[in-house]
Structure prediction request, 229 residues.
Amino acid sequence: KAGVTQTPRYLIKTRGQQVTLSCSPISGHRSVSWYQQTPGQGLQFLFEYFSETQRNKGNFPGRFSGRQFSNSRSEMNVSTLELGDSALYLCASSLLEGRSSNQETQYFGPGTRLLVL
Amino acid sequence: EDKVVQSPLSLVVHEGDTVTLNCSYEVTNFRSLLWYKQEKKAPTFLFMLTSSGIEKKSGRLSSILDKKELFSILNITATQTGDSAVYLCALAGGTSYGKLTFGQGTILTVHP
Prediction:
């Protein structure tokens, strides 16, 4: 079974621009979570989508948004980029549907490394 | 708010050594604790623990959870250079399904 895929793998943008990152989950997984990883803050939760609905959101400004499509693929958008948005953006998928902890294992994609100049 | 603290933050050992990595946590409504290994890119899943006292094993790696004292340990025996990585502890808890709270990670370096 193919793993989680993310595109693009690397991205260079300038301040003020916007960016869209894409994530395709493992086949059959309907929950997709997004994380930001930086050397200073570590891995921080951005949001989670299930069945095209955002179920949970982390403590990030409104410039960070996302969506999920009917095939479970997800996109994340960052508008008005700031230097501090430079990070590795990781997407993870899981079988989590209801409230069963057995399905909470998240499998991560390779990430998109974003550099904002 | 859920909190995960890992120790040590970094560790340097030689091949063949045994290491123990620690993860302590604070959470309301614990659901599970997960361990991941991160080399250059994506964290790869190692273990998921939900019950106290039950050891999970995979080759030279093992992990156990203590829900009373709120900690978990990850043991690696007979370390190899390929074990060099960042080991991450993550917590699933509260009512936020789909969210993992991560610790800072332990950087393990194994020298030949």
